[in-house]
Specification:
By secondary structure, this protein is an alpha+beta fold. It folds into 2 domains: about 80 residues; about 90 residues, Gamma-B Crystallin, domain 1.
Amino acid sequence: MKRVSAILLSVIFMISALAACDQFKNMGGNKAEEEKKKMEEMASQVAQKLAEDQKKVEEEKAKMNQQIETEVQKRLAEEKAKAAAAQPQTQPTAQQPVPEKIVERIIIKEKATDNTKEKNAERSKEVAEKLSGYLRIYIDKGLRGGSMTIPFGRNISTSNGTGFKDNCSSASYHIPAGWQVSLYAGSGYSEKRLVLSGSGSVNDLGNVNDKCSSFRWEKQGE
């Protein structure tokens, strides 16, 4: 407002100066010319001042518009950020169902546990097929008389169905490392037993002499 008032005062001053020039038209001599020249110079200065003020007004107006635009963009960005932060976030809860894949894994693990014994038996059978060994039993002591060879991995729960029945008194053997063969006095792997491992022979079966009713290959430590 102050700048506009100054401009108006300058315009009024210019008009007054022009009116004063008209009053000096009737004056003669050098004095009139000098006054007229002064008034023209003053009018030129006023016009220049008006142009400069107008330029400054335009510059300030452009600057103000730029500041307003910057502030508007800033406010819009802040409002957008607030709106995004106000949106609810989806959080997993304890009541959500267990994923299907996890359930499948649990079921598979339980089945594997149920079949552990069966798989171990199959694994032992596979190992037995790859290894070699034997137990040869004799009717008489000192590895004499009739004999019967039992290959590695073959278990006999009763000797009643064989020609030996339980009449064995000595034995020779070759047993794979980590394994042993047990000779039981009773059928079904029961009563007293004699355990053999490694390679060698036994001329007298001791407490199972003439009482060997069943034979079983076993993993040592089991």
